[in-house]
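Postdoc handover notes: sequence design on the structure in folder B. Input tokens:
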């Protein structure tokens, strides 16, 4: 009796997930492996990957096009939350995991599988995200993670695959580990493991280097409705199109490169490079529009929750009670985050240089220093008297 009868495996077409197919059957006694490849806008034909899974021994090879739900149900809420893990990483990889988990659970249900599987190792965040999200969606489903247990080196994994006709890459494979989707690329390993060494230009694919970025800026006006980006330069765009166009525009100006040492869930520090042009530009613009449309107290309170939200997403708790409660708060705050923000793209920067909203709380008559000033300056005196009263009492007491 094997560990499971029928397994749905999250399949990327790479060496590890390919080797998982024969491994699950040969070593763990699984009867049937169903491969599931998910299109998240990684810009790769999934047809050949679908074929490859069958060649590796899958009984069924599924492809799910999930770009639209990825953007609408995962990226947009994260933008509304201005989510940046450790104040920098916009979670482009992390956001995909709960969606893949959901698709795995749905496929397992549809095909009557008693387990799902993934190719994550025991060192990363993604195993945590998959396992916890799967458990949240179906606590009875078994989760198999062969790469967490098989203890094979890269070479051994390739050799194992060759025994089952899985071709190892012809050209010397890249030293980098890269995760890519419509929102961005995450690059680690190889020479990047030395945190002091500057990332070579060759690792980037979505962003221009600063020296090659245009000397003249470009502008782009992002329109939001209820905190969701809906247009670029006045043109209403579908969710995917908007991200794609903004990736191009921002990427051309070198916007969205992040080089950081981050704290993984399992306690290791790791050096990761990201390029997330559209996502970072959208967070900049969105946060700026909030400054115009939210009251001071809501803005400030929300900032604290945004940090918690980012930690929850990074740490695999997308489907969790605290995340749901924070979502409800954030949704309420977004009702009037409608309007547009003008961004200036230049040499690695996406700088908000203008903003407007039908719900603007900015009052020119109160803000102006000109002749139209309607603010009652005398009223400030009484306010300051009362505001400063405890400080005055404290000072008199401590100096007595
Ligand atoms: N550190 C990022 C995260 O945990 C990316 C993980 C995948 N990175 C990679 N280069 N394969 O979200």
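Designed sequence:
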């Amino acid at each position: 009796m094997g560990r499971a009868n029928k397994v749905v495996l999250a399949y990327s077409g790479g060496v590890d997930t390919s080797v998982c197919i024969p491994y699950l059957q040969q070593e763990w006694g699984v009867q049937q492996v169903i491969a599931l490849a998910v299109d998240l806008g990684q810009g790769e034909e999934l047809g050949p990957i679908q074929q490859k899974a069958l060649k590796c021994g899958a009984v069924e090879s599924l492809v799910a096009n999930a770009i639209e739900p990825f953007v609408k149900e995962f990226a947009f809420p994260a933008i509304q939350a201005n989510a940046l893990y450790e104040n920098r990483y916009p979670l482009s990889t992390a956001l995909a995991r709960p969606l893949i988990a959901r698709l795995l659970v749905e496929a397992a249900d549809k095909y009557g599988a008693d387990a799902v599987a993934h190719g994550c190792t025991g060192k990363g965040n993604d195993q945590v995200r998959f396992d916890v999200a799967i458990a949240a969606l179906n606590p009875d489903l078994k989760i198999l993670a062969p790469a967490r247990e098989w203890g094979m080196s890269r070479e051994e994994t390739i050799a194992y695959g060759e025994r089952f006709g899985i071709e190892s890459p012809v050209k010397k494979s890249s030293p980098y580990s890269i995760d890519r989707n419509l929102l961005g690329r995450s690059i680690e390993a190889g020479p990047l493991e030395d945190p002091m060494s500057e990332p070579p230009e060759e690792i980037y694919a979505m962003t221009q280097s600063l020296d090659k970025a245009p000397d003249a800026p470009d502008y782009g006006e992002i329109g939001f409705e209820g905190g969701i980006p809906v247009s670029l330069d006045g043109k209403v765009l579908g969710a995917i199109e908007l991200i794609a166009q903004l990736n191009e525009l921002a990427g051309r100006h070198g916007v969205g490169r992040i080089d950081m040492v981050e704290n993984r869930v399992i306690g290791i520090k790791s050096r990761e490079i990201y390029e997330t042009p559209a996502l970072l530009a959208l967070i900049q613009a969105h946060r700026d529009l909030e400054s115009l449309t939210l009251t001071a107290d809501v803005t400030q309170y929300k900032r604290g929750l945004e940090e918690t939200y980012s930690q929850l997403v990074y740490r695999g708790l997308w489907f969790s009670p605290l995340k749901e409660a924070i979502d409800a708060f954030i949704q309420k705050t977004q009702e009037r985050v409608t309007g547009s923000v003008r961004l200036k793209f230049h040499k690695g920067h996406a700088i908000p240089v203008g903003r407007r909203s039908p719900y603007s709380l900015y009052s020119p008559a109160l803000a102006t220093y000109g002749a139209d000033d309607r603010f009652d300056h005398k009223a400030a005196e009484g306010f300051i008297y009362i505001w400063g009263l405890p400080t005055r009492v404290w000072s008199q007491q401590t100096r007595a």
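Context for whoever picks this up: Residues 93-94, 125, 177-179, 186-188, 272 surround arginine (CB under 6 Å). Don't rerun without checking with the PI first.
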